[in-house]
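Appendix B. Chain record.
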Amino acid sequence: MAANVSYATQELIKTFNTQHPNTKVLTTLGGTGKLVAQIRHAAPYHLLMAADMRYPKALYRDGLAINEPKIYAHGALVLMSRTEQDFSKGLKLLLDSSIRKIAIANPKIAPYGMASFEALEKSALLEDIKPKLVYGESIAQTVAHTMVAADIGFIAKSSLFAPALRHLKEHIHYKEVDLTLYTPIEQGIVILKNGEHNRAVKEFYDFIFSDEAAKIFSKYGYSLP
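Structure tokens predicted for this chain:
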């Protein structure tokens, strides 16, 4: 399961278990790129909830998934700092001399990192702020960098629901990045070969597209497809 979904996971599973009390759902959280690498090396996963549709599409193309991936939600990007910032400046805030380190997910493997790079490029800021960038291998690691080592960072909007971040205030500690600056972050789910004949896997897959799950995704900062 993509790391950015971690804060919605507990409620999703709890709601699913009200309908299927005898099914135990086990999750492995991490960057989508790393999870896919594990799947290609025979990790015993049944489902993949990815943060980037390219990965489940590739698994389906290569015969490692049994169905075409389907979008379950769109993620959003926010610029966040543990300290108060003047977010009225927009992304130009990153040029300030007080901003020395900017946390960002690795754009080579993390879709939120790719979206961050795209927003910076469209804003004509990337080259100027590149020396300030500090990379995380997943959105969870990027959040950790933002809260400890960096002055500001690009994180998933859903990450704001982590207990350690819930005290942060919009326009003071964070601001959503303009959606026109990056390609929509399409998050998809696919049933893997290991889950092909598992009824519980299909039940959870169907639940992800239910009205109950849609309400949970909306609650945690996602928009619906």
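Further analysis of this model is presented in Appendix C.
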